[in-house]
Design goal:
445 residues, 16-stranded antiparallel β-barrel, disordered N terminus, 12% helix, Porin, 4 helices, globular, 46% strand, mainly beta
């Protein structure tokens, strides 16, 4: 109740008390004090609140459901009434990173500058998620601001979903195209500073679409999506073709629950294992309209874009299989990719081939020298193509300050033997051949 709304009921008993006091002087009756009058008013407020279903005596809203603010895995604003589904949770994350690159005496790069040494904020993110309408309906919004993307905040992910059962959780919005386990696992829990060279080259990106997630049996999970395209993350409607991409991923934990992330932060006393497979099919039509940019994301194994050698229409078929284990501080993760680019139509370049097959993958091994705290990691990654082959060798360490990924220091050294891809997030640049050094503090709330 506002201050103004309390003034009138306050004046009434005060005036009544003055009048009653004047009369009581002649009769010997008790005269109410000011504190007694205020107690009567509070009692009246509580009675009104009981009848209207609201709470009294706090800063909680008097209109609608009463709310409470707490910190529980994020800043939460939620209904006090357990039957009311409303909840809003706010989280944030920043990866403050140093990146250096040095082309060795035999190495080179096609990027400019050839050498680099700088700080950056990678994935400065603010996340909003919550429940509304009913307990099964949720939303998620992710805003991302990277200093290597022009210091602009972009609309990264946004979806609304309704969970019908454990087997079916239905989503609409923008999110990952689920063509790779390493891609789906997220950048928060990567084993080194960022994902592997092979993952960056083969994986899909984000797209708008509809998808479903579920667990039809204990330990067995799936994610299936129909999306605008293989890689349409920040493209407008006029920049994509009218062909959908179809993608799905299936994974199984046959032993103990595997947990989130690649490091064995849980220190599994029993063997935990995860095996899975993913597949994506995406027809691309670069020549459909002049502004189409969707097909430009596809590169050949030598780093050239397929559209740059005349490919206007083609199909992308990507298969991936993955396997991982965790046991008493030891964690081994791997994924193998095979990609076929087929039905290539290149009217402007008769010499363009009609199909390309590339394959590759990565394996990383980490061990907790100090359980749940300090870990050393090594990774090997390769891309094998008909035009060129590339390799990545990396060593690094992670220090989990609070035993979680939410406060983590990471350092790695990577030797790149050619890079056929370019992505600012994992700091790979087209043509890089040399050594990359990265140090990162990941802090999240």
């Amino acid at each position: 109740m506002t201050t103004s709304s309390r003034v009138v009921p306050l004046l009434v008993p005060i005036l009544f008390g003055i009048t009653a006091g004047a009369q009581a002087q002649g009769t010997g009756d008790h005269v109410p004090t000011m504190s007694e009058l205020l107690e009567r008013i509070d009692a009246q407020d509580r009675k009104i609140a009981e009848l209207s279903g609201t709470s009294v005596g706090s800063d909680k809203t008097r209109k609608g459901a009463a709310l409470e603010a707490v910190y529980d895995g994020g800043f939460k604003l939620r209904s006090v009434n357990p039957d009311d589904p409303f909840e809003l949770r706010v989280n944030g994350r920043m990866q403050f990173r140093y990146v250096g690159f040095d082309a060795d005496h035999r190495g080179s790069t096609s990027s400019m500058p050839a050498y680099r040494s700088d700080f950056e904020i990678e994935r400065g993110r603010l996340e909003f998620r919550g429940t509304f309408l009913d307990k099964g309906t949720h939303f998620y919004l992710n805003l991302d601001g990277d200093t290597d993307d022009g210091h602009q905040v972009i609309f990264h992910d946004f979806w609304v979903n309704h969970q019908f059962s454990r087997c079916l959780d239905f989503y609409v919005g923008k999110a990952f195209v689920p063509g790779s386990r390493d891609w789906l696992s997220g950048s928060t829990v990567s084993h080194l500073v960022d994902r592997s060279l092979a993952t960056t080259f083969f994986r899909p990106d984000r797209s708008l679409g509809v998808w479903a997630i579920g667990e039809p049996a204990d330990g067995l999970h799936y994610r299936a999506m129909i999306a605008n395209g293989f890689n349409t993350s920040d493209l407008a409607g006029a920049e994509v073709d009218n062909k959908f991409a179809y993608s799905g991923s299936l994974w199984w934990d046959p032993c103990a629950p595997y947990g989130k992330g690649y490091a064995d932060l849980e220190h599994h006393e029993d063997l935990a294992m995860r095996v899975g497979a993913s597949a994506t099919f995406a027809p691309e039509e670069d020549g459909q309209q002049p502004s189409n940019r969707e097909a430009d994301a596809i590169r050949l194994s030598d780093g050239s874009r397929l559209t740059s050698v005349g490919g206007e229409h083609f199909d992308v078929l990507l298969f991936a299989v993955d396997a991982a284990i965790k046991y008493q501080g030891l964690a081994i993760n791997s994924e193998f990719f095979h990609r076929t680019l087929s039905n290539i139509h290149a009217p402007t370049n008769a010499s363009t081939r009609r199909a390309y097959d590339d394959w590759g993958g990565y394996v990383d091994v980490g061990y907790m020298i100090v359980p749940k705290t300090f870990e050393v990691v090594g990774r090997y990654s390769t891309i094998q193509g008909e035009l060129m082959s590339s390799y990545e060798y990396a060593l690094g360490a992670n220090y989990y300050l609070n035993g979680k990924h939410t406060n983590k220091l990471s350092f790695d050294v990577t030797m790149l033997d050619g890079s056929p891809t370019s992505s600012s997030s994992p700091n790979y640049r087209l043509g890089d051949d040399g050594f990359m050094f990265r140090a990162q503090w990941q802090i999240a709330f």
